[in-house]
Amino acid sequence: MTPLSWALGNRARIGLSLLPGVCGLLFALSSWAQERPGVMAATAPIELIHDKPYVEVMVNGRGPYRFLVDTGTGTQALISPELVHELGIPTVGHARLTDPSGQGEQRSDMVWVESLKIGGVEFEEVQAVEHRLFREEQNCQGVLGFPLFEDYLLTLDYPGRKMVLSAGTLPKSAAGSVLPFQMKDGVPIARLQIDGLGVDAQVDTGGNGLSLPDAVAVQIRFQTTPVEYGTAESLATRFSLRAARLQPDVWFGPYVFRRAFVEINSAFPLVNIGSTPLKNFVITFDQAEGVMLLYSKDRVMRLDASPVLVEMQNEPRHQASDAKLVPVG
Questions:
Q1: Per-residue DSSP letters for 145-161?
Q2: What average pLDDT does the structure give for the chain?
Q3: Cα(131)–Cα(78) distance, rounded to whole angstroms?
Q4: Where in the chain is the domain with CATH 2.40.70.10?
Q5: What is the pTM of this model?
Q6: Distance between CA atoms of 90 and 327, rounded to whole angstroms?
Q7: What pLDDT, on a 0 to 100 scale, did the predictor assign at position 267?
Q8: What topology is assigned to 177-302 in CATH?
Q9: pLDDT grade, residue 172 (50/70/90)?
Q10: What's the distance, Cα to Cα, between the start and end of the chain in Å?
Q11: Quick one: fold of 3-170?
């Protein structure tokens, strides 16, 4: 199979061997997922490191290797140079990578991964970008981006420490709160309400806390004046972070974060909601319908600082303009 087949999109198949306890999980899923006949759901355990979700992945039949599940990455997958070298994964083209600041770009190799297997689901002919994983290098060997799961309902159950992939769509009668989201550069963007102000926010499982751009922060009341909090870096630049607790509540659908601790940055245009606030939820993404299902046992929550400083370096996204492969060799 040549890399030209990527133009048809990656294909995924569900294996027959599922993890223990999946039968009960499938029954629970059937109450809110309209599944295709004959297609089952598969599950994989999640390991939370600094609140971020990681899963074990078989790469080209070898492994398992630990990958971050990052809805803030707008390409199918990122793979570390070390793993590319270890497995002899072939380079087939190049990609231009940008970060949300839009201030610069980097050129990286595109590699052809024959298969990624997660739990009982195998994704074939995956487009991946070989790239350093910044400070994630000590935690994992790769990143699974949001577009990889476009043909599935993706459920991240933070409290239950599991990820579920199933086919179908979310019905309007689903238990919990169903919210619409937009897709920009392969990343889900939902609405938050802060002090009566509606703001667009990237739902970023690879991020840490709740981060506000300067343009939003100047419109919102804080309990105290924001203070210098640290420094961060993106593909293009280094910049300082400020932090403070909000005076007003933050509404995410019907759920409320009271006196939320937030970071303020000057680099990126959108609010970013990462895994520290998201860890309170079971979240199901339906990319086909552009909706997500949120559920938490608590309606009102407190949001403190992330276990590690928000790095504000969303994994680089693969620009749509680079979808055409550039032959090498």
A1: EGGGGTTSEEEEETTTT
A2: 81
A3: 6
A4: 3-170, 177-302
A5: 0.81
A6: 12
A7: 82
A8: Cathepsin D, subunit A; domain 1 (2.40.70)
A9: low
A10: 18
A11: Cathepsin D, subunit A; domain 1 (2.40.70)
